[in-house]
């Protein structure tokens, strides 16, 4: 992979690309695979799941480098590997299967020059590795071949999807030779998109990827807009805490001044206590007592005698009828109407 310093790794081409201004980038987050620049995929085995990476790269320049060498951990050096031989070609055949059925073969090259198409840059002058690994398959177009016409670098279909059969052209093995290294850089430029800003080397297929931290996601689209909105809201809250906007508003009194407020508060208490049904009879008694003082009723008259006296005062309505309506009222609307009628009766008689 692109971080490996082993002979079969690709750290050499990454450092060389950086030194020559090609801006190599390491892909650890699968979300970065949607770039329009060239992405280099380096699966280590035929069992590597390439599905998501290939779907993300539809229609975009992509180079898949097939594995060639089998390695094992070096017991003498922690984190190092050493050669164990060549991989089985059957394993290489499975890298892009079943979508693309490729057949891998190896030939003795003797280090003879590889052949690029005539219209490709003249600087693409590779010498064949020993042995040279080649591929064949349906819909595979040759770009670079060995001297026998076997495909070393091919393009699948019409999309910019390329397969490099022999990794030694770009691995640290090849970077030991200046001519091979120069041709490797030229190959990256040739495969990259027009106006490319970088070359991307994926390591997620090698188990070195990671999900972005929530803090970093907060400053990447599409979450950046929400982060800015929250920051502005916090800033305004801080400004308001230190400097008020306009004059200070006084809190309203829990109990307002005046008789109206007293009446409203009393009515609310009666309503909350559920005692409003008893107000009708009590209001009728209140009006009777008020009438005794207003009309100078003799003090000896009580109960029915008092009611008969009040009825004898005349007018459009009799007191006893109005008082009975007040006592019979059960809902607030009827009670209000009866109370208004009693109030009107007392007002008419005292004019």
Please provide a written account of the structure:
The protein is α/β, with parallel strands linked by helices and 351 residues long. The protein folds into 2 domains: 11-209, Rossmann fold; 259-349, no CATH class. It has 11 helices and 12 strands. The strands form 3 sheets. The protein has an 8-stranded mixed beta sheet with strand order 1-12-2-3-11-10-9-7. A two-stranded antiparallel sheet has the order 4-5. Helix 8 (279-295) packs antiparallel against helix 10 (319-328) and helix 10 (319-328) runs antiparallel to helix 11. 28% of the residues are buried. The mean pLDDT is 82.
Strand order of the largest sheet: 1-12-2-3-11-10-9-7
CATH hierarchy class name of the largest domain: Alpha Beta
Helix content: 25-40%
N- to C-terminal separation? Answer: 108 Å
Principal-axis shape equals rod-shaped
Tally of domains: 2
Mean pLDDT: 82
Short description:
The protein has 351 residues and is α/β, with parallel strands linked by helices.
Give me some keywords for this one:
351 residues, alpha/beta, Rossmann fold, 2 domains, eight-stranded mixed beta sheet, two-stranded antiparallel ribbon, 36% helix, rod-shaped
Which helices and strands occur, and which strands form pairs?
Blueprint (H helix, E strand, L loop, with lengths): L10 H9 L4 E4 L10 E4 L9 H6 L5 E4 L3 E5 L7 E6 L2 H5 L8 E6 L7 E2 L15 E6 L2 E6 L5 E6 L4 E4 L13 H14 L7 E4 L11 H4 L6 H19 L16 H15 L5 H17 L7 H9 L7 H10 L3 H18 L2
Parallel strand pairs: 1-12, 2-3, 2-12, 3-11
Antiparallel strand pairs: 4-5, 6-8, 7-9, 9-10, 10-11
